[in-house]
Design goal:
The structure holds three protein chains of three kinds. By secondary structure, chain A is of the alpha/beta class. Chain A has eleven helices and 14 strands. Chain A has a six-stranded parallel sheet with strand order 2-1-3-4-5-12, sandwiched between helices. In chain A, strands 7-6-8-9-10-13 form a six-stranded mixed sheet, with helices on both faces. The chains are: A alpha/beta, B mainly alpha, C mainly alpha. The interface between A and C is large, with 33 and 41 residues.
Amino acid sequence: MNTAQRVLAAGLSLALLPSATLADESTRVALVPGGPHPYFAAWEQAGADAAKDFGLGSADYRVPQKWELGLQNQMLESLVTQGYNAFLVFPGDPVGTVAIANELAETGAPVMALAGCLKDPSEAVFCMGTDTGNSAYLGTKELLKQLGDGAKIVHFTGFLVDPNTQLRIDAVAKAAAEGGAEVIQVIADIDAPEPAEEKINAYLAAHVDEVDGIVTTAWVPAVVASNALRKIGDKRIVMVGIDHDEVVIQAIKDGFVHGTMLQNPYGQGYIGSFVADRLRSGCTVKADAPFKSNALTDKFIDSGTVFAGANDVDNYVGSMQSITKVLFDEFESTYLDC
Amino acid sequence: MGGPLRFLLSNEFGLIVLVLLFGILFSTLSPAFLSKFSLYALGRTSAVNIMIGFSMMVVIITGGLNLSVGAIGVGAAMFGGWLMQAFGMPWVPGVIGGLAMGAALGALNGVIIVRSGLHSFIITLATMSIFFGVMIYLTRAESYREISPAFTSYGRMKILGVISPLLLVTFAVAIMLSVLFRFTALGREMLVAGANARAAEISGIRVNRMITYCHMLSGILAGVAGLMLVSRTGAAIPSMAGQLGQDWLLPAFLGPVLGGTLLTGGRLSVLGTLLGSFLVTMLTTGLLLMQVGAFWIQTYLGLLLLAAVLIDLARRSYLERRKLL
Amino acid sequence: MNQKFWQSEWFGPLLITVTAIVIVSSLNPSFLSPFNIQILLLAISVNAMIAFSQMIIIAIGQMNLSVGAIGGMAAISFGGMMEVWGIPWPIAAVLSLSIGLLAGIANGALCAYTGISAFVITLASLSIFKGINLGITEAQPFYDIPDTVKSLGNDTFLHPLPWLVLPAVAAAVLLWYLLFRLPLGRAILAVGGNEHAAALSGISVPRIVIVAHAISGLLAALAGIMLVGRLQIGQPTIGDDWLILSFAAPVIGGAILTGGHVSVAGTFLGVAIVAIITQVLVLFSIDPFLVQVVLGGLILWAVGINRYREVRAHRKIAAGAI
């Protein structure tokens, strides 16, 4: 069957059968990140695995070519036209993506915010992702464990237009205040490697002796700061990074970086695809599901975040899989009525 | 030398041919292209892109550029959103306030350019940073969501199932711009000032004032585009045009340039810009729909753009040769 | 033309650069520490290449929107050839440079033989080149960069002068020699100044346009390759944010966008000014939300001063004439 026929067949089955008895194969999940970024690469495998394990029609990873809200919207609209009927979306903007998410939900498709949340109120079933504030908070705590009282730390983070950035800045400040440390500088807007390289190195060049610790809460700054510490050859400064870029992992192994806060993109994609299918086959989200709250939504599910130091970094994939398994095993009984 | 032949040679005719050509191509390859939802979505997206194209077009006629269209658009939208949220304003005064902000920022560009005598490229490069920076500093990157529901309902409304009201706004603005530049003294003076500043000066046109007006108009149009997006997304968000508003630059240039507005100034085509922006939006939609390898879409888009301008070139040279015979 | 050196277009930028260095280093002595100089020079070297790549196109009165896309394509080709095919780095570098060169020639040939404005052609080719980059990498970086490349991208050959300074200085000297000493350079500037007049005087305009675009592609590719060394990764995002810098530096350095008039030294200083501004914002811990405002303000201030000096010079000349 070609695509057009499949769309047609899906349309027919929708018309003829009550939704509860829909065959699993009609479920076509689209996993849509905000733009090209290595963080989301695990979604492709996660979707493919879920489609195979649960017998879905497909669970495809579809990437907007640029980090543009307009382009992501256009892509989502196009996916509706193409016959996708479940959407796992990283919101290009927590508020700006609400409208399109609601429109998707109006077509009858389950919509979940993945890896980042939509701001309430929205029609998204729930949001599953890393609690960015919590991750930044825990990372800072790990950092402070290594430092004495009155330590001076700097914080490197991402784009200011991303509201998560403000959450991270606040969380790092909070953890620092609790631990008796001082955040002497926040450098933001460095999600692209070139400016990140320039700014981080410039900062370290001038202040290398005043800094005791570094916490990074975005992918690119973590990579660049790891390289910068390696370049300086300084193991006095303690750094906690984020995510699992090879550069960061290697720097941890070589002792230039203390550890990293792992997130769980694979688990988000895998569990998300599974839930999308369950929801399409008649399950509903429990009214009293034990959602957490964060700054954006009251329907938040933490996909897990875990600190990986030099000892666990070799098996970071294993760490990610084990948090996925824990979450998956209890997901249906905890959150769904089937 | 009849009018019809001249029309066949025009950019606008070429674009119409291309739109039809690619329209037929996409709908054959993927029938869903002509579904109601797809057409509605295409119209709504192009409405904004066309408006962004207009905003650049009215500055290009001065022989200049306005890199700050995105920053102004976001600034105006955020100001409008703030008025509606902080003071509970109904949407009409809120929108007027937003447009006034757009006009003010555009006029500021114009005044600095005229007074300093520097190229608009470098001035708007700097003001892009400044406008966006001040916006992000004042809002702390927070969105305004308490927009009057009447206003945001336009962004989702479907007239006859396929037409977005946003598209009607765009058409209305297109007609107003056509009237301005074709039938009013002011519009013609703007064009003359852009075509040849010295000659215009001699014939008594206040060139500097005209340039400032063009930038002010550009600011207003950017504001319209920004507010259309507010209606579409149901909120005024600082990231709607990307970092520094740079996401708008490509659509801003594509429409006017494909539409035959000369980068050297003095000549414009409202219909051409409209068709050019529409063509680009349609190409993107079509490519997304055809599921050509996800990561290769941009390559195909570039190739299609190239094909579009080359086809147009071939058509014109063919017609010109025929005319000579 | 007997131009005094303080009337030349690069004098203004030089004045700004020197003033900025004096002020900043008096407020923060670490600014002139060897390590910081090294950091500054690394940034300036790569950015100079980016700016030159645009400058040569500005010289013929056109724009090249695809510099970043060519640079990114060359960068990932460089990284990919080394990681996937295990090609030794010098060969990979040469091959990537030829990719940049070919991309430039393609740009130039399309502009020259279709008569379509370079703006449109490079807008389309920007999409094509960036798409190829994403198609190959699927947004994943190439990590396997040989240590030699990493150290060339970061280390110094003569403290605090990094290796990357060498290609930048070489490019600057060669470009200056080409533009202002060779007939080819005169032809390039003549085409930029007045295409019709140039054609009438027997210059083959299409050939010159292609040459200029070829040089531009080559320089952009070189910048991309240098960045792979500096960042130690073959990042697919390399080149995404070059566009503004590529125009800002030549223009701050006195280039005229309509063509025929560029300054190699001025462009170099323009790059230096932008690098110093970026550093200052970090060194003085400016509120991150205000960084953009300050950056914009400083660009205005820089070009404003330049302009003021020009206007005064003109008045003086006018007064002298009377």
